Amino acid sequence: MATNALRSLWAEPRPTQAPDWGPRDLALVAALVCWSVVEVVLRQDLAPRPLLLLAVLAVLGPLLWRRTHPFVAVAVSFGTLTIVDIVRVLTGLQGGLLNSVSAALILAYALFRWGSGREAASGLGVILLWLAITYVADPMSLWETVAGYAFFLFAAALGAAVRFRAKIRIRDIDQAKAREREQLARELHDTVAHHVSGIAIQAQAGRAIAASHPERAIEALAIIEDAATRTLSELRAIVGALRASQDTEFAPQPGVAEVEQLATCGQTRPCVEVTLSGEFDDLSPAVGAAIYRLAQESITNARRHARNATQVTVAVTGDADRVRLTIDDDGSSGAGGRGPAGYGLVGMRERASLLGGTFHAGPTVERGWRVEAVLPRTGTPR
Questions:
Q1: What is the pTM of this model?
Q2: DSSP assignment of 167-219, as one string?
Q3: Distance between CA atoms of 296 and 255, rounded to whole angstroms?
Q4: Residue (of 360, 378, 358) closest to 369 by Cα position
Q5: Order of strands across the sheet with 369-376?
């Protein structure tokens, strides 16, 4: 397992869309330049100025492109610092480097924040090599040596932690977007399919009776107009919710009380009868909306697929800890059944499952089709 983890880290790609340098980076470089100038003026125990200038440039220059080219920045900076320290060791020059060189910690952080796995491992090797040589050029106690290594390793660990935190955040955002797309797909399917199905049925009926009963054809056109108006209204509400800002007050979702509005009272075939029984006062709004959408989609499916259906019965019962929805129709499915399960049944099953309920749809023993869903009143999965 450890080997697999190391291989995974080694193969880790660079984060996408690394930001380029900006005003803050220029301000950082300017502050480090001022720090270096102050040190040159105040300190006396410094190495020769050419080496100081080379060391400062090695740190300040790569800071500007530490995000877009993290490994190159580390290689240039710490490689140059290594050369400076080797020159100091071989020539025996006295004096130390500027404390502003410690800004190289930022490069160690950037290496693990923005570099790939291979770049991070290679760059860490360059940093550790410099640390080993710089302690030869400037002998220190064991405690100071351990502290120096700890500082750079902490910077690298911090960069890795921020990197993977950002990665997890991006993954969570992608998952949230996927859930929103699924919810939108269910809402569009349940809303538009229901009304358009009714429009299609009324249009067929109106065309069939237009010649013999013109007045009934006019009634069918009025029903079509009303259904089309409601469809447009719900579509505008959905589009408005997608375009609106976070402060927009959205309209409430339909609930159990609105299920009664799905009844047709003999205006269309099949006739839809709705019965509500039990208590629904303390019902979760999410459960109420799910009951309404499940009933709406089941009625739409009955109109589309139930052959010769004359009656659809919708029964909603509120018990002490759950709500039961049952939809029966008296249509015939034919020898081939009602076709493969489409997005409607998938969406209904998802609605019930997300709220901790159960869902079942299938033919009855005698005739027709039954849809049954049982949801907990609180909408909380057990």
A1: 0.56
A2: HHHHHHHHHHHHHHHHHHHHHHHHHHHHHHHHHHHHHHHHHHHTTT-HHHHHH
A3: 11
A4: 360
A5: 271-278, 311-318, 322-329, 369-376, 358-363
Tens-place pLDDT, residues 161-199: 998 888 888 888 788 777 777 767 666 666 666 667 667
- In DSSP terms, which residues pair with 360 in a beta bridge? 372
**Could you write out the DSSP letters of every residue in 255-318?**
-GGGGGGG--TTSSSSEEEEEEEE--TT--HHHHHHHHHHHHHHHHHHHHH-BT--EEEEEEEE
Note the pLDDT of residue 343.
57
* Cα R_g (the chain), whole angstroms: 35
Residue 135 has pLDDT above 90, yes or no: no
- CA–CA separation, 59 vs 359, rounded Å? 64
Domains (range + CATH), the chain = 2-139 (no CATH), 255-382 (3.30.565.10)
Residue 377: pLDDT over 80: yes
